[in-house]
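Tutorial handout. Part one gives the primary structure; part two gives the three-dimensional structure as tokens.
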Amino acid sequence: MLRSFSVVVSVVLLLAQVTTAGAVVRIGDDRGGQIGPYLSRFASVRNSGELVMIDGPCLSACTLIVGAVPPDRICVTKRASLGFHAAWNFATSGQPVFSPEGTRLLWELYPPAVRRWIKRRGGLTPHMIFLRGSELAHMYRLCR
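Part two.
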């Protein structure tokens, strides 16, 4: 009786590990936001071992997913698009103001292939640039 209980516990633990490792985080229709919460959320995704499916627009701070999670754990669908721009904060007047520190942080977190792509398009500026289609599929595998 004790041996069979031990086997059941072992199987349950094994299945729990497989379920966690096989989980998929779907990202789509994410317009971004403040950098800090995204860094925290994506560090949790990285540490969980979960796979990431980008399935739709992933804009602004959402693009930090490509710097936080290893590329072999990211896949993209045909609907995926990454939108990059320079970081900004709100001034005391409430107006958006360019943030050199935030932009530098974004730049340092992006993987080299993404940085090269951004650089070829003029760098991180206030204007959104989009990585999608075949260019994105050359950097990340297509989801099955």
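Part three, for discussion. The first helix runs from residue 2 to 22. DSSP finds six helices and nine strands in the chain.
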